TrEMBL record:
Cellular localization per UniProt: Cytoplasm; Nucleus
Protein name: Cyclin-D1-binding protein
Residues of the Cyclin-D1-binding protein 1-like C-terminal domain: 205-313
Domain Cyclin-D1-binding protein 1-like N-terminal: 42-182
InterPro entries reported for this sequence: GCIP-like, GCIP-like_N, GCIP_C
Pfam families assigned to the protein according to its UniProt record, in alphabetical order: GCIP_C, GCIP_N
Region ranges (Disordered): 181-223
């Protein structure tokens, strides 16, 4: 195997890579709305063909000895198919909003990147005696092509999945909130007394500090614990609102029209942004619960969530997808927000009173 063969493979691959990267740049702009929309099923089928060709590429590379002419011929076939795959994928984004377009682009990029990596390694290791990771790279292409089947093909599905991710993050915050425990002076004294009694009556074990890990971090005052409990209720009710919103969105699946002028999709995108805004405020609430609790930030978050829920209700009503369950969930959440706001006001008043007492003592 001469150096000339490897150089020729490099030149051919370089040309294919440049063409592929240039074609991929079409995703930087949305397609003309009047263009014919390609169904996502066609894209998935093309992905299956790429997966098959990746397998053949791996077999050609590991044959003994590898034949440069066979690799170059298959490279031509593979990248021609990859070009067709890119054009079909782009055609599937006709009428797609930002969320669906982003999902499609990310899935397509995985196929492109894994394909380029496979052939770069195949050519760079051509003629080398050491073991090359071709099987693993072929597997990466398989995974990328298989993931196409899980990629959303409609705006509603893509936005529904994005909302579900917000709900998942909220559940994580809620779980952490529920781990907060109240501090108790009496409990601490009892533990201390028991520890002292045990120390006097029994030999001390170096590995036993007398307190378990579960006793650590129980430093919320009774007032802070009330705020924490109200916040947990708010986040729980918020989760129900998001879940009902997703049901309302998915029930609108039959309404989506590929030839829509964009109004329907724009409304869905606005709802998603509102959902994500609420998710960010829930994160703020979770971060502010740890002592000392940041009451002003929490009150601001409560206000934003409340106003966003109002806007969300209006948006869902405009889509004619409002359900009684969604309205009830929103009303319960508003009640919980009012209760939390009341707790925060009391907490803020107590803090102010404590500060005034300090001033009086200092005077």
């Amino acid at each position: 195997m001469g150096r000339t063969e490897k150089d020729q493979l490099f030149n051919t691959l370089s040309s294919h890579i440049n063409n592929t990267n240039e074609t991929f740049q079409i995703f930087d702009q949305a397609p003309v709305s009047s263009s014919k929309k390609v169904s996502w099923e066609e894209v998935v089928k093309m992905g299956e063909r790429i997966s098959l060709y990746a397998t053949i590429a791996g077999m050609l590379r590991i044959e003994k000895p590898p034949v440069a002419r066979h690799i170059e011929q298959h490279m031509e076939r593979y990248f021609n198919t990859l070009q067709g795959f890119l054009l079909l994928s782009y055609g599937s984004t006709v009428g797609a909003g930002p969320t669906l377009s982003s999902c499609v682009r990310a899935a397509v990029k995985e196929v492109v990147d894994s394909s380029l990596q496979l052939f770069r390694e195949s050519v760079s290791s051509f003629g080398a005696n050491e073991k090359c990771p071709i099987p693993q790279l072929v597997g990466a292409v398989w995974e990328a092509c298989s993931a196409l089947g899980k990629t959303p093909g409609t705006n509603i599905t893509a936005i529904g999945q994005a909302m579900t991710q917000v709900a998942v993050s909220m559940k994580d915050v809620l779980r952490e909130m529920k781990e907060l425990k109240p501090g108790s002076t009496d409990l601490t004294d009892d533990i201390s007394d028991q520890a002292c009694t045990k120390a006097e009556s029994e030999p001390q074990d170096d590995d036993d500090d007398g307190l378990s890990e579960g006793d650590l971090g129980n430093d919320l005052s009774p007032e802070e614990m009330k705020v924490a409990q109200s916040t947990i209720t708010v986040v729980s009710e918020t989760l129900i609102v998001i879940e009902e919103l997703i049901r309302s969105i998915t029930s609108s699946l039959k309404i989506e029209n590929p030839k829509d002028n964009g109004g329907f999709v724009d409304s869905l995108e606005i709802l998603l942004k509102q959902c994500q805004e609420i998710g960010e405020q829930v994160d703020e609430l979770g971060a502010c619960l740890y002592p000392p609790q940041e009451v002003p930030i929490m009150r601001a978050a409560v206000e934003i969530i409340s106003s966003t829920v109002d806007d969300m209700q209006t948006g869902v009503e405009s889509l004619k997808g409002t359900s009684e369950a969604f309205l009830q969930a929103c009303n319960r959440l508003k009640g919980s927000l009012t209760q939390l706001n009341s707790e925060l006001y009391c907490s803020s008043s107590l803090d102010l009173e404590a500060e005034m007492q300090k001033v009086d003592l200092n005077n």
